Amino acid sequence: MPQKLVTTIATLILTSAISAQNNNIVDEVIWMVGDEPILLSDVEEMRISAEMYGERIENPYCVIPEQLAIQKLFLHQAALDSIEVDESLIIKAADEQVNRAIQNFGSRENVETMARKTIAQFREQQKTMFRNDEKIRQVRKKITDNLKITPAEVREYFNNLPQDSLPLIPTQVEVQIITSAPQVTRKEVERIEERLREFARQVNSGETEFSMLAKFYSQDGSARNGGELGYSGRNQWVPEFSNVAFSLNDPKKVSKIVRTEYGFHIIQFIDKRGDKVNVRHILLKPEIEENEITKSLEKLDSIANDIRLNKLTFEKAAVQSDDKNTRNNKGLMAYLNPETHTNMSRFQMEQLPPDVARVVETMQPGEVSKAFKMTNEKGQTVCAIIKLKNKIESHRAHMTEDFQVLKDIVYQKRSEEKIKQWIIDKQKQTFVRINPNWRNCDFMYPNWIK
Q1: Do 389 and 300 belong to one domain?
Q2: In terms of pTM, does the model score above 0.85?
Q3: 341 and 278 share a domain?
């Protein structure tokens, strides 16, 4: 980085630090993108955030402003396209990030020291970041939506690569699974329902605020926000929850108890805007008794033994699974590729649920596991058996065996080319002014300075 720029930035940061002691923060507009400013404090905030997680950015005072400028191009397009995001997912992602930070750094106080913010400020920063990321993801998706990759393009890409330059495909596995959810006893259901009825009574009588009870007792990520889920459409929640949430219209009354696959809820109406509603909820998850877990494990071990004795195939046994995602797919686990929007059944080990990966590591292809306990994607305890259907060891990509992987690579390459051209075109249409002290950089996109 040029010495003049380093000196200028160092002076500005020192001035800011001195002024901060007098509660008079000095800041500076370093870029203008359209009518959106990029401030020195924006750059510093992003640099500090990267340092928190051990990410070293070379030439941060050149790289970060350009990243922020590109972000503003996408966010401007998102505003033009009236793109909206699921606020409940943003809140959940931010809460998870805060929890990870507390685990990584040992305490809330350590996070506040590293982030130079209170936990509340840090959470708001994460919400803004995830909200912007989701809007940008949707804009990028819209830009590349019509992109199609033909087999001829994949073959051309494969044939033009030297053998030693072909992608290295990590070890992949195909896994079938059968799950059994331990039953919740009637006594436990009654305990949960009685507790929720008491919460509802306290709120309806004015004795306690719903949001306060949610903060203390709800077993959902929204608890930190007083149970508030943000404005959401009917299809953003499971039907049982949506049906009740959208039937409410009085913020002074609490809903009846709602049972979903996540547990038991009570809901409070906040507001409605068009076809979206904002509610609070309290979620309580029933505790599973150990003898019920034992029953599920024994049931699955019996099924596994019948499969090993060839009395039953895994595929036929899978119709008994409680896992609706795999039940009608002969038990085969799959995930949606976010880039190509296709279902994939080949997992790298780190893509599997941790409990499943630990068992798979000990197995050979064709083997059926013993029954084991695991936590599913909804945070529930379930029991499972798995079959390692196939294992493909790490190897250089092959046109026939790894066609989908190569297609994904070509798709990603073409997508980035299309995105890059979009940014270049957007630069031409957008007013950009850069403070003279911030211009002497080797930008990824050189057309910022006109």
Answers
A1: yes
A2: no
A3: no
